[in-house]
Amino acid sequence: MAQTTLAKALNNGLRAAMERDPKVIVMGEDVGKLGGVYRVTDGLQKDFGEQRVLDTPLAESGIIGTAIGLAIRGFRPVCEIQFDGFVFPGFDQIVSQLAKLHYRSQGKVPVPVVVRIPFGGGIGAVEHHSESPESYFAHTAGLRVVACSNPSDAYWMIQQAIAADDPVIFFEPKRRYWEKGEVDPDADPPPLFTSRVVRPGSTLTVATYGPMLKTCLSAAAAAETDGHDLEVIDLRTLSPLDLAPVVESVRRTGHLVVVSEAPSESSIASELAARVQQEAFYSLEAPVLRVTGFDTPYPPSKCEEDYLPDLDRVLDAVDRSLAW
Question: Domain Transketolase-like pyrimidine-binding, which positions (predicted)?
Fold first, then answer.
């Protein structure tokens, strides 16, 4: 077991998958010689060659379309979208082709493509570099959508996504790339499409994913000083949503706060709130509360600290829920 950053854990996970299966191909803008803008693919082209780590033109539609063709011929392409807001030129290929082929062919033509998307804010970037577009993809039947939040999950989830026969949209919290955690390459990882209780508690349930997990764990530690024992759940999978641990937790605590960077309207957070109120209504002692980004375009970097959910906003929601 070793301490490593989330970015390095992804690199090691990609390397392990490529060593295991020669059909795994990494492709995207600047993923080869540069090693990606976040260095997630650093060293892979040197070790596996230009035929397996491909620097592509700046054309997301072409990247996804080429990956679909490769998948049909038996390869397992891993596409990197350089920044979250750059995925939209390839959106048509993803939702109209990639998501549909396995179903359209009655299961005869799997398309095991992984689309890696660094997402979220907190890095002081310019416009189109700090989006949270996960709801678009979770809404689309035929796609699997996951979000890692720590180095251990990053290492295992990227390998599991590559091994899956369905297309997987793989969200990576870019402001957590350089944060360290323990990774045990000999561990028995949880299944890919499952959520996980990362901090047991009895007073109130907090459900979150991706970059907000660290914020929620900090809020839980702060709430403990006030005598509140928060249970924190990392969703990990956004489509399909694994709600069983959340519903089970809410039936014990009676309170739920959902935290996400994305805007609240028509979001993962709103879907989670609706489903929990449907399945655990009589266990709730207060409405499900959401702490999210605002329903506005992502602001300039000087304003993003006011836009992103922080510890104080999470604690305020906790206090409002418990005071209901």
Answer: 4-179
Specify the residue for token string 């939209």: 88
Active site residue ranges? 129
Write the burial class of residue 269 (CB in 10 Å: 0-12 exposed, 13-18 middle, 19+ buried). buried
Long-range contacts of 92-97 (CB under 8 A, 24+ apart): 92/61, 93/61, 93/64, 93/65, 93/68, 94/64, 94/137, 94/140, 94/143, 94/167, 94/169, 95/136, 95/137, 95/140, 95/143, 97/64, 97/65, 97/68
Separation between Cα atoms, residue 286 and residue 278, nearest integer Å: 14
Secondary structure letter of residue 185 according to DSSP: T
Positions of the chain with pLDDT lower than 70, given as ranges: none
Tens digit of each residue's pLDDT (9 = 90 or more) over 139-157: 999 999 999 999 999 999 9
Tokens read off for 59: 């054309």
Kindly state the helix (H) or strand (E) to which residue 262 belongs, with its residue range: strand 256-263
Amino acid, single-letter form, for residue 14: L
CA 20 to CA 106: how far, in whole Å? 28
Alpha helices per DSSP H over the chain: 6-20, 44-48, 60-72, 91-92, 101-104, 134-138, 151-163, 212-224, 244-253, 268-279, 304-307, 311-322
